[in-house]
Amino acid sequence: MSSPNISSLGIKDFLAQDEKKDLLRLLTAGSVDDGKSTLIGRLLNDSKRLYDDQLEALQRDSKRVGNAGDEIDYALLLDGLKAEREQGITIDVAYRYFSTSKRKFIIADTPGHEQYTRNMVTGASTAHLAIVLIDARKGVITQTKRHSFLISLLGIKHVIVAVNKMDLVDYDQQVFESIRSEYLEFTTRLNIPDIQFVPLSALKGDNIVDAGVNMPWYQGASIMTLLETISISSDRNFVDFRFPVQYVSRPNLNFRGFAGRVASGVIRKGDEVVALPSGKRSTVQSIESMGTDVAYAFPPQSIMLTLDDEIDLSRGDMLVRKNNQPQIERHFEAMLVWMDESNLDLNKQYLLKHTTNRVKARIDAIRYGVDVNTLQRFDAETFELNQIGRVVLTCSRNLLFDSYQKNRQTGSFILIDPLTHNTAAVGMIINRVRSEQLPSNISHEIQSTTDRSLIDRGEREKQLSQKAQTFWITGLHASGKNEVAYKLERHLFDLGRTAIVLNGTMLRAGLNRELGFDKADRDENLRRVAEMAKVLNDQGLIVIAVFISPDRETRLQVKEIIGPDRYREIFIDTTLDACQKRDTTGLYAKAAAGRLRHSPGVDSPYESGTADIIISDLEQVDIQDLI
Amino acid sequence: MSKTESYKLTHLQELEAESIHIIREVASEFENPVMMYSIGKDSSVMVKLAQKAFAPGKIPFPLLHIDSHWKFKEMIKFRDEFCSENNINLIVHKNEEGVKQGVGPFTHGSKIHTDTMKTQALLQALDSHKYDAAFGGARRDEEKSRAKERIFSFRDNFHQWDPKNQRPELWNLYNTEVHRGESIRVFPISNWTELDVWQYIRQESIPIVPLYYAKPREVVDMDGQLILVDDDRMPTELSKKKEVRTVRFRTLGCYPLTGAVESEADTIEKIIEEMMTETQSERTTRIIDFDQDGSMEQKKREGYF
């Protein structure tokens, strides 16, 4: 390596250079048989030796790696747990660290046998790049395909195919070329945008750091050079701004900061944002990153935002841009990787963690399983440990998500077993599910809920800061119902609530104008009012309905339509005498003259006994008590 | 910041962002978290990250120091000054029973001392305060068994770690679910290397215990380890052999169990330079690691950090 080093730079300049390095996370896929440990051992060792050699000016003792007689057991260097030493196998994911003069590296080393899928998926979830090792003598084998499928599934964009043990095939270019074309042919079925091939002898050191002398036909870069130079900064999503609120900080009355990690996109001071799920808008007032005030922020920074307005926002909510919003859905399809010893259970309610949100979730249907060795789909009743497949999920609440392919951060989730708390599965969201494509067991549930809007009533209520309900004001004609209703409306308005008064005069003038006054038409009139109140309540609005509604049975029906928990009945219990005195419409006079039949209180009864609140003295009414 | 926007982070900025995310996640998801504070350099970095995570607010959880009764005097002084200057809520716990019985490394040996005054003391503190999450400053590059430990590492009712039964950890989605009595050890600087820690201390001017810097100190050679004569609890047959040497400490713990190294490194830059040329890992001056094969893993299974 001819780059500037610590001895030629001096410590301060070395540190200044070191500070500027970026970080590359990589995954190594392959078994010990492929020479993986030897490769990692070399990468660790050669990079470490970089410091020793150069600092101690021991240049004469070359860091050249071609000592075939070097009997170091590199696997021991990587060896970790006692159990493994005893069993002679590696059982899990281990993380290794090394750095060169250009970059720092974190290797997720995921060896193992039966547990391979689970471990590899874990390591791949944070990796920018994967090295796939192929034994030159064996070529593209089942294991290679399995690794590559998982790499593609987890969305790693860069793959280095290391064709190792070239020394055992006489450094034959033909062998290398045929492996290359076979691999490329296979990966047309996958989604890996950047694939590079390097012929290698990990044992002898060819093309690990330096080219070596054995493969003059190979003009490409060594593994180390590729690792140091592959650009990863453009892999992140800088387009779709998503900021899941992780923590709300209120150290004093004057400061309310929203802490979290920028999942994707770029945000600048002064930008307009929309809070989801409430839909409220605000403007970014300040951004703090790494303890300093900054003008903009981008992934994967951990920042603290403040907003211009005091909008309600808590953990699990998300800040986005008005014209670029995630999907808001309870039902979606995802690829699952089963991670737990206990199998997938369609009847179980799992905990689902997604961004900073946690909801309950159920797996409604398994679309298919995927055989990781053949990539063939199969019908599955359940998934067991290490199995992969496509499922339909339903959550207890809407999630704010993107497809995993578009956004690794907002498209990934984990399922947690509610009893054992094991991480049962991990998932990558494909898309929301259109209702007509939902499995039959849940489509009924959808149809029975009239609200198919992307916004549910709870969200609307949250935005309007009110409980959507219907005040049903009942009582004799001219008992003072409208007076109470408009006072109530005024009071709610002054509190900042949104309420709508519905009364008979209003509705019979238009919507219900064909209806008469016989029992059937009066019932139909009230049925329509109840349905309308329900629609308005579903929109988050408060309804004040003013109707004589003298029949007990009819009011119970109204209550049933609106929903008992949203229906509040207020009965104005005044005497007929008082009503007749208040009456300015002449209705009671007409009734008394016998020109009007079925007039409640006069010749037909008012059936009381269902009210939540009874007002018997209009002078003493405290409107506050009604709500 | 220049006019043209750059969307690149240095490795330290990326590690910092990850650590702050982890620390905030714990504050959000657990009812009663605590941050283990060993007074060492890794702890100092971890506390700095916690300060940043919640600034301008205070750190919303206490720091817990397990005082083994045998720490260097300079550590205790540094701890008290640092915490009071930074308005940090510090809890100190000692195994009073052990103190009463006079347990110490000189009389009882490193194994019994560590078990009684560190491991047992830690478990007492965790049990009595019923913490459901405890931050530790361990790094994966420190020691082989740690390379596989999760960032959120599950502990059962007995505070035990089962390396064969760890929860898979993907993306930055951490499984924080525990039943009553169970807990999670959280290692927010898992992915930092020793060099990263020193670089960060330098970059952020983080105060550290002066013992890390070389200066002439009174030490005795105890089985090849240079032990500081920190107080008169050192047996006189040992302390009478004391000599002044220019030394520093690469790691801090109980003074009779922590060997000094001869060094001229009296600045952070010199410490880093020395570290880069050093071939032995930092823990070779920690005596407890050599007790038995796989020793650290054994201690971790038993509940030690």
What is shown here, in short?
The complex is a heterodimer of chains A (627) and B (305). Chain A has 627 residues and is α/β, with parallel strands linked by helices. Chain A has 18 helices and 28 strands.
Protein model, in words:
The complex is a heterodimer of chains A (627) and B (305). Chain A has 627 residues and is of the alpha/beta class. Chain A has 18 helices and 28 strands. In chain A, the strands form five sheets. In chain A, strands 7, 8, 9, 11, 12, 13, 15 and 16 form an eight-stranded antiparallel sheet that branches. Chain A has a six-stranded mixed sheet with strand order 2-3-1-4-5-6, sandwiched between helices. A six-stranded antiparallel β-barrel of chain A has the order 17-21-19-18-22-23. Chain B has nine helices and ten strands. Chain B has helices at residues 11-29, 41-54, 73-85, 96-100, 105-129, 194-204, 236-239, 268-277, 295-302, and strands spanning 33-36, 63-66, 90-93, 133-135, 152-155, 183-186, 215-222, 225-228, 243-248, 261-262. The interface between A and B is large, with 78 and 66 residues.
Task: Chart the SSEs and their pairings.
The complex is a heterodimer of chains A (627) and B (305).
Chain A: H1 6-9, H2 11-19, E1 22-29, H3 36-55, H4 74-78, H5 82-87, E2 94-99, E3 103-109, H6 116-124, E4 129-135, H7 142-153, E5 158-164, H8 173-187, E6 194-199, H9 223-229, E7 242-244, E8 247-252, E9 255-261, E10 267-268, E11 272-276, E12 281-289, E13 292-294, E14 296-297, E15 302-307, E16 318-320, E17 327-338, E18 349-354, E19 357-370, E20 377-378, E21 388-401, E22 412-416, E23 423-432, H10 440-448, H11 457-464, E24 470-475, H12 481-494, E25 499-503, H13 504-508, H14 519-538, E26 542-546, H15 552-562, E27 567-572, H16 576-582, H17 587-592, E28 613-615, H18 623-626
Parallel strand pairs in A: 1-3, 1-4, 4-5, 5-6, 24-26, 24-27, 25-26, 27-28
Antiparallel strand pairs in A: 2-3, 7-16, 8-9, 9-15, 10-14, 11-12, 11-16, 12-13, 12-15, 17-21, 17-23, 18-19, 18-22, 19-20, 19-21, 22-23
Chain B: H1 11-29, E1 33-36, H2 41-54, E2 63-66, H3 73-85, E3 90-93, H4 96-100, H5 105-129, E4 133-135, E5 152-155, E6 183-186, H6 194-204, E7 215-222, E8 225-228, H7 236-239, E9 243-248, E10 261-262, H8 268-277, H9 295-302
Parallel strand pairs in B: 1-2, 1-4, 2-3, 4-6
Antiparallel strand pairs in B: 5-6, 7-8, 7-9, 9-10
Helix pairs in contact in B: 1-2, 2-6, 6-8
